[in-house]
Design goal:
The complex is a heterotrimer of chains A (157), B (315) and C (114). Helices cover 73% and strands 0% of the residues of chain A. By secondary structure, chain A is an all-alpha fold. The mean pLDDT of chain C is 91. The chains are: A mainly alpha (157), B alpha+beta (315), C mainly alpha (114). At the B-C interface, α10 of B face α1 and α3 of C. The complex binds iron/sulfur cluster (2 copies) and FE2/S2 (inorganic) cluster. The site of one iron/sulfur cluster has 15 residues of chain B, from α9 and α10.
Chain lengths: 157, 315, 114
């Protein structure tokens, strides 16, 4: 047995779940984009699960006829659990959509991320001073408002 | 970290700090936490504290460092949960009188060799895979250049920021994608790919675009921007990746063409000296024509120095 | 999989589509726009009317949403276990086909109102 056989590997990877669910894995200051990334991923995944369910449920008329659809909707409307679920999904869709518009601008069109510049103290990266940051704060500000409106519509019936 | 506490070095750190180090030994194969008490002084950095521990308390503590001044990029480690350069981090910045404990871990996402020394081979391999050097089509010209390649100041402005990268790997250690996908190219390599793709002196963006436009290339980035938040040189790799991605799309759709510069013209041979304008005055006692004919030799402290008339230009 | 940039490009194109279509789809449920309550808007007459007059819009919405969601999920799987890239692409294709099939059947195989 040579020396190399005894040497073990230590990968030191925090892993997928830590990276996707814990916005404070790296305790860097001035980085709300990381929180937005985690929320974007969590909301996106949840909405995808809802989408599967939604496609199956809206298939009811074709599968079992319109009476089944109406009685299903009655049952859904009566259960508070479903209302709460709908409320959560609505809020998630709102965040994912608004943050998605910001990501479209930055990632797809490559705008709102600032321009390269000569770094000067206090060394704030240009993209942190660009308009994407203001858009992000706007998203965080509008989110609770729109979510509350959605809740009003859903719980009022 | 980009936003350093600029005044930290002037503050007095707590007299005694506790350094908690996450240690890993390849022969034992297990992680253990060790604590060391270190006496501090004003202006002490984390690296100095670690070296003091190594000198006085525990000679087996391993780390990597070289320049001690934030230039070589060797001493990256996770200090209190943030990847930072140990030599640039003041004790006064990370420890306070109420909480004099500093937690130090090896950089995340890099394989650990021992204690705080991490293996950068995969990281440098990714950097090399984007071909971080100028490529010219004319290989003969590239190997024996006849003139400089022209780079205008405004074009330099575009790439200057990205060329400040010191390959310290902090961005790679902070990235959430690299934290789960070891094949991800990482912010540093992608930023360097952009730096050469938009460099007008380079003529081969296509191979680089082919490298970054892969399943583990620039499309894996989700713009969490932690890479930019921790970069000690304000390189802003997050911005670079978004610019790179839109360039990839425009290139694939045929909207993007690279502007390249030609080598500058050959410098002209030494021009014969222009005749003096008649109003020009020489220093009294200096005969320029005579100097041109025979060089003036001056002896200074026994060493003979020839004075070249060309340096006596009168404007 | 198709070339990476194509998938990512379609990801953004479907995102733009979704902003338009999903806003429309959600607006169908807002009482101040439709004039009827949220619960009313889910009754079979309203839904059947929607399917027969602009069913293709809803179908397009379903395809775009499925592609966008599943491609995002595929990316997560690639990150999670990069070794099994082929498998994740296959998962993407199968899930897309199955749910796109169900969605198509919803619109195409719609029974008449009783
Ligand atoms: S981009 Fe910044 S953090 Fe990343 S390797 Fe270069 S200098 Fe270090
Ligand atoms: S912006 Fe991209 S490369 Fe930088 S930390 Fe986020 S995911 Fe990683
Ligand atoms: S020792 Fe060179 S960067 Fe810290």
């Amino acid at each position: 047995m040579g020396l190399t056989d005894r040497v073990r590997q230590y990968r030191n990877l925090p892993g997928f779940l830590q990276a996707s669910l814990n916005p404070w894995l790296i305790k860097a200051r001035n980085n709300p984009e990381r929180l937005a990334f985690v929320l974007h991923r969590v909301t996106g995944f949840t909405v995808l699960l809802y989408l599967f369910l939604h496609i199956i449920v809206t298939n009811t008329p074709a599968r079992a006829g319109w009476e089944a659809w109406d009685s299903l909707m009655e049952a859904f409307g009566a259960a508070l659990f479903n209302k709460v679920g709908e409320f959560i999904i609505a809020g998630f869709v709102i965040f994912h959509g608004m943050n998605g518009i910001r990501l479209l601008l930055t990632e797809f069109f490559g705008v709102c991320i600032g321009k390269p510049e000569k770094p000067k103290p206090p060394y704030i990266p240009p993209s942190f001073k660009a308009c994407q940051r203001r858009l992000l704060y706007l998203v965080f500000a509008l989110w609770p408002i729109l979510w509350a409106i959605a809740g009003y519509i859903i719980f009022k019936g | 970290m980009a936003i350093a506490d600029l005044k930290a070095a002037t503050r007095i750190p707590p007299k005694l700090v506790t350094i908690r180090v996450k240690r890993w030994s390849p022969t034992k194969g297990k992680v253990e936490w060790r604590e060391y008490q270190v006496e501090t002084y004003r202006g002490m950095t984390v690296l100095e504290a670690l070296l003091k521990v190594k000198a006085e308390k525990d000679h087996t503590l391993s780390m990597r460092y070289s320049c001690r001044m934030g230039v070589c990029g060797s001493c990256g480690m996770v200090i209190n949960g943030v990847p930072r350069l140990a030599c640039q981090t003041q004790i006064a910045e990370v420890a306070s009188e109420s909480n004099p404990v500093i937690t130090i871990e090896p950089l995340y996402n890099h394989p650990v060799i021992r204690d705080l020394a991490t293996d950068f081979n995969p990281f440098f391999g990714k950097h090399a895979s984007v071909k971080p050097y100028l490529i010219r089509k004319d290989i003969e010209e590239r190997e024996g250049p006849t003139g400089e390649y022209i780079l205008k100041p405004e074009e330099l402005e575009n790439i200057y920021q990205f060329s400040l990268c010191i390959s310290c790997g902090l961005c790679y250690s902070a990235c959430p994608v690299a934290a789960s996908d070891p094949e991800y190219l990482g912010p540093q390599a992608l930023a360097q790919a952009l730096r050469f793709i938009i460099d007008p002196r380079d003529e081969d963006p296509n191979t680089r675009i082919a490298v970054v436009d892969s399943e583990h290339g620039c499309h894996r980035c989700h713009y969490a921007a932690t890479c930019s938040a921790v970069c000690p040189k304000a390189v802003d790799p997050a911005m670079a990746i978004q610019m790179l991605r839109s360039i990839v799309f425009r290139h694939r759709l045929g909207f993007w063409r690279k502007r390249t510069s030609k080598p500058a013209e050959k410098p002209k041979e030494w021009q014969p000296k222009k005749p003096m304008p008649p109003e020009a005055q020489t220093i009294p006692g200096v005969d320029l024509e005579q100097m041109e004919k025979e060089p003036v030799i001056v002896e200074v402290d026994g060493i003979k120095v020839e004075i070249d008339y060309k340096f006596y230009k009168i404007r | 999989m198709a070339r990476t940039w194509t998938m990512q490009f379609l990801q953004y194109v479907t995102a733009i589509l979704l902003i338009v279509l999903l806003s429309f789809h959600l607006a169908e449920r807002i009482p101040w726009i439709t004039g009827i309550s949220y619960h009313e808007s889910l009754k079979s007459e309203r839904v059947a009317d929607a399917y027969s007059s602009y069913g293709w819009v809803l179908l397009l919405l379903a395809y775009a949403a499925l592609f966008h969601g599943l491609n995002g999920f595929r990316g997560m799987l690639h990150e999670w276990k990069p070794r099994h890239g082929r498998l994740w692409d296959l998962v993407f294709i199968i899930l897309f086909l199955v749910f796109a099939g169900i969605a198509t059947y919803t619109v195409v195989g719609l029974p008449p109102l009783p």
